Amino acid sequence: MSADIIWATQAQIAEAFGVTVQNISQHILDIYTSKELSKNRAIKKFFIARLEGKRQVEHQIDHYNLDLILSVGYRVNSKKATLFRKWATGVLKQHIVEGYTLNKSRLGQLAGGIEDVHRALELARQAIDKQENKDLANEVLSMLERYTRSLTLLQAYDERGIEAPRGKKTARKITYKECVRVIEELRNDLISRGETTILFGQEVDNGLDQIVGSIYQTFEGGDLYPTIEDKAAHVLYLIIKDHPFSDGNKRTGAFLFVYFLYKTNHLYRKDGEIKINDNALVTLALLIAESNPNDKELLINLTKQLLVN
User: Fold this and answer.
1) pLDDT in tens, 100-141
2) How far apart (Å, rounded) are the C-alpha atoms in residues 68 and 59?
3) CB neighbours (10 Å) of residue 269?
4) Does residue 57 contact residue 50 with C-beta atoms inside 8 Å?
5) Tell me: the pLDDT tens digits for 193-238?
């Protein structure tokens, strides 16, 4: 098995479904003949070492990918195959009706993992219901799927006793005056395009100054929010939820979030892809705006997980 897919021999498939190798071989031939799957993509040869007498001899053995295994499972006539089809149909039904599928056995081992994901999904539904653009649902579920994978990854790290990723630190800071300047530039640009008014980004009661100061708080000689991920997540959350501006808090929060990541060289992944694209960022801002204050830690952790490479 590789990181992406399962490969199995005819003998392994036969054992899984409780039939003979000859039966599996005939079904594979039928699948190729009907052009349901391409032989070139469904099959791969692996070297397998076998003991022949006193010698170990390597043989090239055909292995079949997950697509073919599933296809065979829907053709085989056996008790095991029937149980497999019932299970697979149940998973497919859940995915079609609910829009997502979760590995509960893996997530359930992580304290609070499955509960956090379900709470996040409920927040997503609430945010979507209040928006006219229902296409955001796909972005929400895509983003939460990445969060689910992160939880599973952290569990895998824990099982092997390896320390989980803790984010990155940086000496680069953004200042309050710097934030005020870029917000003014953003306001002028939006006004020139007729997309806002002079009220956009106007600070109320030094709210922005307090937020910028809060992400650089120290406690007993150390940063309260030590990593880039910590600081960025709190910038986004606090601006959206604390409303430091008379207008445009979601847009300003998202803008300063991206600006902070850019200035700390943390906006892009190693392959050059942006960590959170425009649609995902809009979705994340909506989730935060519509969330209950009790879910602050959940939303902060969600944002941080999306930023970890």
Assistant:
1) 454 555 444 444 444 555 565 566 566 656 555 455 455 444
2) 22
3) 11
4) yes
5) 787 899 989 999 999 999 999 999 988 778 888 889 999 999 999 9
Residue in this structure with the two tokens 């005819």, named with its chain if needed: 10
The residues, any chain, with a CB within 8 Å of residue 140's CB and separated by 6 or more, are: 124, 127, 128, 283, 287
What's the pTM value of the predicted model, to 2 decimals? 0.51
Task: Give burial (CB, 10 Å; 0-12/13-18/19+) of 218.
Answer: exposed
With tokens 């991206």, the residue in question is 258
Mutual orientation of helices 249-263 and 278-290 as an angle, nearest 10°?
A: 130
Q: Is 42 exposed, middle or buried (0-12, 13-18, 19+ CB in 10 A)?
A: buried
Residue ranges and CATH numbers for the domains of the chain are 10-92 (no CATH), 102-159 (no CATH), 176-307 (1.20.120)
Beta-carbon contacts of 23 under 8 Å, excluding residues fewer than 6 positions away, are 14, 76
Burial (0-12, 13-18, 19+ Cβ within 10 Å), 29 = exposed
Q: Are 197 and 191 in contact (CB under 8 A)?
A: yes
